[in-house]
Design brief:
Length: 476
Amino acid sequence: MTTVENDERIPNNVNLASDKRLQRALEAWQPSYLKWWREMGPSGFQEDQVYLRTAISVESDGWAHFDYVKMPDYRWGIFLADEVKDRTIGFGDLMGRPVWKEVPGEHRTTLRRLIVTQADTEPASVEQQRKLGASCPSVYDLRNLFQVNVEEGRHLWAMVYLLHSYFGRDGREEAEALLERRSGDADKPRILGAFNEPCTNWLDFFMFTFFTDRDGKFQLLALAESAFDPLSRSARFMLTEEAHHMFVGETGIQRIVERTAQQMKQHGVDHPDDVRKLGVIDLPTVQRALNLWFTLSLDLFGGEVSSNAASSFASGLKGRANEDQFDDHVALAGSYRMDTFRSGAAVVEQVPMRNAMNEVLRDGYIADCQRGVDKWNKTIAAQGVDFALTLPSRRFHRHIGTWAEGCADPSGALLSREQWQGKRDTWLPSEHDRAFVQSLMAEPVYDPHQMANWIAPPKQGIKGRAVDFDYVRREA
Ligand code: BYC
Ligand code: FE
Ligand code: FE
């Protein structure tokens, strides 16, 4: 078991005090991080007292502490899951050998790239969500937004620790660059597509935490298998926090569709225009937001045929989610039948298993998404409304992989680019949709006893507190 140091400038369970050089380097990065947080973190709530969860250890019972804290005073710490004794590499060419405590020279560049890519998404998401406090549906939701934001900040710390400890000067430079890129910036964008997309309203936010944070879950599961043990241990603890982010998304959408369906039933209306007049979000608009964030998140798994994925698997850098559930951990023999788009047509391709690892990870992700969608549909049906949300085909609206060249509708039927453009607004959020959703959220709800009209209240509050507990004490 590791010893936790919570009284140092940087809380940690990695015995930071024993490596003065590393400690000094991270303490030198800390003010830059805080400067970034003040500039790019939640806009307008930095002086308020927020009831937040802070990681203080990695024990499964009691790893977190809940209390009021001003966000800039949040104790962002470095926590690695406990070492697994005699852990060996679980897949690829080096299967069965001891895991690495240091970075092998030949994998340095690839590992750094994987860690930087993971790291980059964390501050990016905070930047994307920074203005949402101004339109929150309740104080409960406002607190959850900030909880997600501070923990994404901690995930950045987790990755920066790895860069500083194991990648020398290059690592320190990458850590600086992580605070310089900006989501959506034309000159210095974030690395991956979805993290440059605007997330401008709470429907987007809940879809983002459901779909995009879930990509985080699967990528972290894959990195938790890594032969590079410090990365594996970091990823394992990050997954503990990730569960709440996806909970926020899943219950957020569930509460939206519950409220909408309940109002539809109560007023006996069905047409989206009539539903909108009730001040709730019509279900086709929910479907379009789902289509957008699901497909943007599918792209985050990379191309379906990938030599990068094959070599990361071969060398033990990145495995599959829950690798021990597979029978063949070497994956040199099998192949994977997949649906690709080549020279203007859909073709079924037989791809060597290792080159299909991105698609294998995406499969697990899609199945996990479907479970959430099924729950939303149960909520709609329970109100007696006949409408079902669906995940679109993985051919639809892709920007990465072979389908980036093809145009398909949400059912997967091929179309010309012109036909597709003509129907775009029936499948993806239009300007009109955005303006409507924005109009519902024009007035934020800062009274803890109130809830916006467009969303049902949650079943329960946070950590045994009431739903109308004062989770964010406004000081201004
Ligand atoms: N956008 O062989 P390919 C999270 C690049 S989310 C832009 O198809 P490969 C979080 C790729 O880099 C989890 N570029 O894919 C969620 C490559 O470039 P190079 C984040 C893309 O290499 C919410 C080229 O295209 N973690 O934690 O297997 C809130 C060909 O690539 C994209 C990770 O992603 C894209 N979508 O890469 C907060 C884990 N996709 O090498 C946080 C680390 C691919 O030709 N990253 N490219 O220059 C990885 O494992 C891999 O880099 C990828 C796929 C999964 C991204
Ligand atoms: Fe994260
Ligand atoms: Fe997250």
